Amino acid sequence: MKERRILVCIKPVPDPEHYDKIGIDPASKTLVRSGIPAVINPNDKNAIEAALEIREYWGGIVELVSMAPPDAEEKLREGLAMGADKAYLLSDRSFAGSDTLATARVLAAGIAKIGSFDLVITGSESADGGTTNVSPQLGEMLGLPHVCNVESITPQNEEQWQLNVKIEEGYLKVEGPTPMVVGVNDKINTPRYTTVMGIMEAEDKEVVIWSAADLEIDNDKVGLTGSPTQPGDLHEPKLQRAGKLLEGEPEVVVDKLIRLLRQAGVLNA
Ligand SMILES: Cc1cc2nc3c(=O)[nH]c(=O)nc-3n(C[C@H](O)[C@H](O)[C@H](O)COP(=O)(O)OP(=O)(O)OC[C@H]3O[C@@H](n4cnc5c(N)ncnc54)[C@H](O)[C@@H]3O)c2cc1C
Questions:
Q1: I need a labelling partner for 107 at 20 to 30 A (CA). Which of 48, 66, 194, 227 fits?
Q2: Hey, whose CA ends up nearest to atom 3 of ligand 1?
Q3: Is 128 a pocket residue for ligand 1 (Cβ < 6 Å)?
Q4: pTM here?
Q5: Does 225 contact ligand 1 (Cβ within 6 A)?
């Protein structure tokens, strides 16, 4: 049985628990994430889990790829603790400010340098940017078939994958060749917890760090200069909530609440 080499793209994102602290830099119109702890994009944990399950069935290796600042090594170690075998961190000051196109360029350059593989799995969507652009862009840049919103991946034979793709009215069964790029959604599985043993083993696993020079990528194709997306007028919405404390016995409070909801037009009857 052919062993599979699976690459999984993972993105560190600000912890969704702290989204209230994310700001917007008025000059660059980019998100200000400083001081907010990072986590592996939740959907990317589904991608890691999907790869690990395929490895468990077929054998092979699972390798992680991320474009991120140097401190993202810690997040890659978390993915290694889940069970991945090796990781690649694509990191260079010139990558800062990359839009989805420039991000996909860097990932594609990293994956091309890694060489041969059977499958690239990404999340369908990041929890912060959430454009869903990167996975299909990556497929196009690598010249590979790609599909997103995938809810199951089954190795059909050594040359083909069978995929269940969620569409609005149901599911599409898709057959795709080896290699291809697959974006999975969060329904595909429940990511495993890391064990203490997994965390200890991850310390000895290799994290390869590649710069722009290692990837032989032009500086004008990455970062802000290589990003055609120019955010327009971005502003932070000012949320104003009026609070009103209702006091009294539960029945009295419920009556008051219903009266207020009727006055506000929320309840008709
Ligand atoms: C002008 C501009 C400047 C920006 N500057 C910055 C910046 O300085 N720092 C910053 O963090 N973001 C910056 N961004 C946001 C950045 O473009 C996106 O976060 C990034 O391109 C990924 O897009 P997304 O979050 O919509 O991913 P999606 O397309 O929603 O992600 C889908 C999947 O692609 C994969 N993926 C996405 N990004 C990565 C990655 N980096 N590494 C590995 N896999 C990945 C994951 O598997 C993910 O689940 C900027 C955006 C713009 C428009």
A1: 194
A2: 97
A3: yes
A4: 0.88
A5: no
239-254 pLDDT per residue, tens: 777 788 999 999 999 9
Higher pLDDT, 67 or 156: 67
What's the mean per-residue pLDDT of the chain?
Answer: 93
Determine how many CB atoms are found less than 10 A away from the CB of residue 159.
10
Whole-number Å distance, alpha carbon 118 to ligand 1 midpoint, is 24
Just give the CATH number of 4-221. Answer: 3.40.50.620
Q: Does the Cβ of 103 fall within 6 Å of ligand 1?
A: yes
